[in-house]
Amino acid sequence: MIGRLLAARALRAFGDGFIAVVLPAYLLALGMGTLEVGLLSTATLFGSALATLAVGRWGHRFSIRRMLLAASLIMAVTGLAFAGFSSLWPLLLVAFFSTLNPGGGDSSVFLPLDHTVIAANTDGHARTTTFARYSFAGSVFGALGSLAAAVPEWLAAAGWTLLAGLRAMFVAYALIGLAAWLLYLGFPEVKKESAEPVALGPSRRIVWKLAALFSVDSFAGGLAVNSLLALWLFERFGMSLAAAGAFFFWSGLFAAVSQLVAPLLARRIGLVNTMVFTHIPANLFLIAAALSSSLHAALGFLLARAALSQMDVPARSAFVMAVVTPAERPAAASFTAVPRSLASAAGPTLAGAMFAAGAMAAPLVLCGVLKTAYDLALYASCRKLEKPL
């Protein structure tokens, strides 16, 4: 079951990897501006948040297999709709109901479903390791997907228009959704961890505390999702699609390797310390990149950030699953993900407005400052809550 889950995660990540880079280029090719890129990114994140909330509230009425199949079909429809529409309002509507991830990572309704499957089939250190493998698969194949962002320029050199090449990438995204559907079609039903699925109970207080903290981190992250970071590189330094894709490939590869190190580090210093003490330096590197006047310096700082910024992901997932009862895990996964998605949804529009106003460094600096504040608050409030694995 875990192998099939990781294979589907890898496929989706490949699609997310090239879409995060292609999306802003596609919208610019359609004649839209930086503000519209931010608005559309906000719509995708806000819609994902509501879908995740629905899974947390009513998902126990349906099988996880059925929900994964439905989400895969939505992914396929999303790709075809984006390839077919050219106006802002239809695209905003599709984005709201879509599985698009402008951050390149997994912020869609797939996330709590996948986490529930992992939590139900692993425990202790094995759970942290499996979450790391899950994140690693996402990062590696997301990185490979970033390289595929160069395809529209290759097609343009072969006689296609750039816009046609960009549309073809969304068709490819739809085909990946269908491939994921085929994988989930053979997925066994996930055994429920309790006879009576419950919403949050004894762990309600800690879950909402974590949700509040994670929402600060996610709002900050929404200011610098991969689509906006690609837009920043396009507008600030005039990077091409191929060059941006290559950068995000190496960025994703660094993040992937770091996530394999995360469970080893967590065994030595704990989950909370792993989250905090790798995240703060990453935030400082982001601020340094924003203030750099040289493309090479900016890329260097961003790659250094990538080597550290995602080490908290498997540790955070394992921490949430460890501090709640088994019966509460599906609800905890959803109710910590929803505020994060809602908070991150506000960031892209704000960042797009800052870009449009000419304040190109402001979103990245603000992101780094807010994330550092989150790290300090997380350490102060949660370091005593950690239980031995």
Describe this structure in words.
The chain has 389 residues and is mainly α. The chain has one domain (2-382): MFS general substrate transporter like domains (Growth Hormone, Chain: A, Up-down Bundle), CATH 1.20.1250.20. Helices cover 78% and strands 0% of the residues. It is built from 16 helices and no strands. The protein has helices spanning 2-29, 34-58, 64-84, 88-96, 110-121, 124-147, 151-157, 162-185, 204-222, 226-237, 241-269, 271-290, 295-309, 312-322, 329-356, 362-382. The longest helix has 29 residues, at 241-269. The protein is globular and about 60 Å long. Residues 192-197 have low confidence and may be disordered.
Any key phrases for this structure?
389 residues, 16 helices, mainly alpha
Q: How would you sum up the major sheet?
A: none
CATH topology: Growth Hormone, Chain: A
Number of helices: 16
Global Rg = 19 Å
The chain-level structural class is: mainly alpha
Kindly report the average pLDDT value: 86
